[in-house]
């Protein structure tokens, strides 16, 4: 039987409960591990984690979404969804058996469901064990969980956005200094997110390979990170593949900065989003033919300013900048042409 609460799963009340939102990124994809600028925003959907001590030598982890329980001895990592939690337990210094209830309405695929899970877990741990962690330190621990326990060499954007962003504004993050500020959405526009229905698994995809390629490109260009490239033409000297990967990162960082100029309206912002998708599809090669089909349909809609894949790629979600008040109608019109098992609108 699927349990809908910690009490149902474990027969007692939790000692700490926390939530964290998923995120969608409007601009700045695959720049955060090169010190670049990014423009994510939080979405209303949240991950919820409830924790309680169980007085044993094992963690008992229950996922309501999967209706699955995993038992992991304290000090071990486990498999399936377990590493997202056991990594948080290990890095926070908690060395006692815990019961954990996990529930989430964040769709997986480009909306940082994993970051939301990590941030929610760390927030609950912060309350449970009275940990001295501010929201930035908590986000950085989530990044370390991805690197050391999940096996995805991600940047800092997802966890920073899940920990610090809200749904009312975009959060401009300088991923090198971690400075950040709220940025309003373009006037007269709203954000629509559509899950393409194409599943992805980053640990088995080319994500880590892309990161290694851009790091090699930075080394060959003799810069600490591709953010430090001042003349975009220098990337053309790189060998094939590295040239394309570096070109995406350099031009994507420039697109974020262009979006911050004072005269940028919804039309111009949408053009930058469209260019971002073309770069992700071509130079960075992380899109998917079905995602490209969905993006093309959206870009052709008269009330859409711009559309692009969001997240690491290889499937997942599409983010759309649409005329205020027209999100539902645009989504319905496009989805009437695009059919994919599991595709859905994230309001």
Automatic annotation (TrEMBL):
<keyword id="KW-0547">Nucleotide-binding</keyword>
<feature type="domain" description="Galactokinase N-terminal">
    <location>
        <begin position="5"/>
        <end position="52"/>
    </location>
</feature>
<dbReference type="Pfam" id="PF10509">
    <property type="entry name" value="GalKase_gal_bdg"/>
</dbReference>
<keyword id="KW-0119">Carbohydrate metabolism</keyword>
<dbReference type="Pfam" id="PF00288">
    <property type="entry name" value="GHMP_kinases_N"/>
</dbReference>
<dbReference type="GO" id="GO:0004335">
    <property type="term" value="F:galactokinase activity"/>
</dbReference>
<dbReference type="InterPro" id="IPR036554">
    <property type="entry name" value="GHMP_kinase_C_sf"/>
</dbReference>
<dbReference type="GO" id="GO:0005829">
    <property type="term" value="C:cytosol"/>
</dbReference>
<dbReference type="InterPro" id="IPR006204">
    <property type="entry name" value="GHMP_kinase_N_dom"/>
</dbReference>
<dbReference type="InterPro" id="IPR014721">
    <property type="entry name" value="Ribsml_uS5_D2-typ_fold_subgr"/>
</dbReference>
<dbReference type="InterPro" id="IPR006206">
    <property type="entry name" value="Mevalonate/galactokinase"/>
</dbReference>
<keyword id="KW-0418">Kinase</keyword>
<dbReference type="InterPro" id="IPR020568">
    <property type="entry name" value="Ribosomal_Su5_D2-typ_SF"/>
</dbReference>
<dbReference type="InterPro" id="IPR006203">
    <property type="entry name" value="GHMP_knse_ATP-bd_CS"/>
</dbReference>
<feature type="domain" description="GHMP kinase C-terminal">
    <location>
        <begin position="265"/>
        <end position="338"/>
    </location>
</feature>
<protein>
    <recommendedName>
        <fullName>Galactokinase</fullName>
        <ecNumber>2.7.1.6</ecNumber>
    </recommendedName>
</protein>
<keyword id="KW-0299">Galactose metabolism</keyword>
<comment type="similarity">
    <text>Belongs to the GHMP kinase family. GalK subfamily.</text>
</comment>
<keyword id="KW-0067">ATP-binding</keyword>
<keyword id="KW-0808">Transferase</keyword>
<keyword id="KW-0479">Metal-binding</keyword>
<keyword id="KW-0460">Magnesium</keyword>
<dbReference type="GO" id="GO:0006012">
    <property type="term" value="P:galactose metabolic process"/>
</dbReference>
<dbReference type="GO" id="GO:0005524">
    <property type="term" value="F:ATP binding"/>
</dbReference>
<dbReference type="GO" id="GO:0046872">
    <property type="term" value="F:metal ion binding"/>
</dbReference>
<feature type="domain" description="GHMP kinase N-terminal">
    <location>
        <begin position="93"/>
        <end position="164"/>
    </location>
</feature>
<dbReference type="Pfam" id="PF08544">
    <property type="entry name" value="GHMP_kinases_C"/>
</dbReference>
<dbReference type="InterPro" id="IPR019539">
    <property type="entry name" value="GalKase_N"/>
</dbReference>
<dbReference type="InterPro" id="IPR000705">
    <property type="entry name" value="Galactokinase"/>
</dbReference>
<dbReference type="InterPro" id="IPR013750">
    <property type="entry name" value="GHMP_kinase_C_dom"/>
</dbReference>
């Amino acid at each position: 039987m699927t349990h809908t609460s910690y009490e149902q799963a474990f027969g007692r009340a939790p000692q700490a409960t926390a939530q964290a939102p998923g995120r969608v990124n409007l601009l700045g994809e695959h720049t955060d591990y090169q010190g670049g600028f990014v423009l994510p925003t939080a979405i209303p959907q949240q991950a919820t984690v409830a924790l309680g001590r169980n007085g044993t030598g094992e963690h008992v982890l229950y996922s309501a979404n999967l209706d699955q329980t995993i038992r992991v001895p304290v000090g071990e990592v486990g498999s399936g969804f377990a590493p997202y939690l056991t990594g948080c337990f290990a890095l926070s210094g908690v060395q006692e058996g815990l019961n954990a209830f996990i529930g989430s309405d964040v769709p997986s695929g480009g909306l940082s469901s994993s970051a939301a899970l990590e941030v929610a877990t760390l927030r609950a741990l912060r309350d449970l064990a009275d940990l001295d962690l501010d929201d930035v330190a908590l986000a950085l621990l989530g990044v370390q969980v991805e690197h050391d326990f999940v096996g995805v060499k991600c940047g800092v954007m997802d966890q920073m956005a899940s920990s610090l962003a809200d749904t009312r504004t975009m959060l401009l993050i300088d991923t090198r200094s971690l400075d950040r500020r709220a940025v309003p959405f373009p006037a007269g526009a709203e954000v629509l997110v559509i899950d393409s229905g194409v599943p992805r698994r980053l640990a088995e995809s080319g994500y880590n390979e892309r990161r290694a390629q851009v790091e090699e490109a930075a080394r060959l260009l003799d810069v600490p990170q591709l953010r430090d490239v001042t003349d975009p033409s220098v990337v053309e000297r790189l060998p094939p593949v590295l040239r394309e990967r570096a070109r995406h990162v350099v031009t994507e960082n420039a697109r974020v900065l262009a979006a911050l100029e004072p005269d940028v309206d919804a039309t111009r912002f949408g053009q930058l989003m469209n260019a971002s998708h073309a770069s992700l599809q071509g130079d960075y090669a992380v899109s998917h033919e079905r995602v490209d089909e969905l993006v093309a349909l959206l870009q052709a809609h008269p009330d859409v300013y711009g559309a692009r894949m969001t997240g690491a790629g290889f499937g997942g979600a599409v983010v759309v900048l649409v005329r205020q008040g027209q999100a539902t109608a645009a989504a319905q019109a496009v989805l009437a042409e695009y059919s994919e098992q599991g595709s859905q609108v994230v309001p």
